[in-house]
Amino acid sequence: MKIALITVGFIFLTLIFTACGSSQTPAPQTVEPTVVVSPSPVASITPLNTVQELVNLQNEYRESIGEDDLLPGLSCALYAVPNTTTNIIGATGLSYVTSWVFSGTFDQSNAPVTAGLNILPAPLQANYETWYIVKCSGNLVSGDSNWHDFSITSDDGSNLYIDGLLINNDGLHSAQTKSYSKYLVYGFHSFELDYFQGAGAEQLQLEEDGSIMGTSGFYH
Fold first, then answer.
1. What gap in Å lies between CA 32 and CA 41, rounded to an integer?
2. Could you tell me if residue 150 is inside a domain?
3. Which domain holds residue 205?
4. Coil, strand, or helix at residue 150?
């Protein structure tokens, strides 16, 4: 009988403690707030349909600040040099002869100097066969953002600048080719091609992605 009472009492107390425990409010839990981070706005430039549209926009801007419009082609200048000249870079004693706008292609194949360098105006070709430097400069307009392969073959020296010196093929030498790749973003890039003729044969060929470059994408 006592054992039964003890057992009943134990069960009764167990039920009371269980009920009391279940009625307690659980301790509040710390919940980290959800933070939504909005992406920063990214400036996006959508390429225009044509290079000409880009040039038109550039000219509108230039007009707004009182500058002249960009025109097709490259601005070239001819300099006579002493027959002791060996390089374009660092050359001294340059004597300015004349300037012109070049709108052809850089496709002078190897030939004797008596043939006349074809980027020179016709009246100058017979008068300037040896010991001169030609510098053609302006802007190269890239219609995309991509890698491009450039190469120069020259006799004698040549240097290509696209936003700085890209290919150094300088010096007195027979025909030789040098190449380099550059990533060009869509838009305008400063451009300069220098050529040096000492004596002997002449050659000046400029290629982009395996094709001879013309001046269709150049403005000055």
1. 27
2. yes
3. 51-219
4. strand
AA identity, residue 200 = G
Residue 116: inside a domain, yes or no? yes
Q: Is residue 127 included in any domain, yes or no?
A: yes
Quickly tell me which residue has 């004596």 as its tokens: 199
Nearest to 208 by CA among 175, 174, 160, 173: 160
For residues 111 and 125, the answer to whether their CB atoms sit within 8 Å is no
CA angle in degrees (0–180, nearest 5) for 152-51-194:
25
Tell me which residue of 150, 143, 132 sits closest to 54, measured CA to CA: 143
* Number of structural domains in the chain: 1
Question: Which ranges constitute the DSSP H helices of 24-171?
Answer: 51-64, 122-125
Residue 9 located in a structural domain = no
Q: Residues 6 or more apart from 204 whose CB is under 8 A from it?
A: 106, 108, 117, 119, 152, 153, 154, 158, 195
pTM assigned to the model: 0.77
Going residue by residue through the chain, which has 220 residues, state the pLDDT in tens, using 9 for 90 and above: 444 434 434 444 343 344 444 444 444 444 433 333 333 333 334 565 688 888 999 999 999 999 999 999 999 999 999 999 999 999 999 999 999 999 999 999 999 999 999 999 999 999 999 999 999 999 999 988 999 999 999 999 999 999 999 999 999 999 999 999 999 999 999 999 999 999 999 999 999 999 999 877 899 9
CATH of the domain at 86: 2.60.120.1560
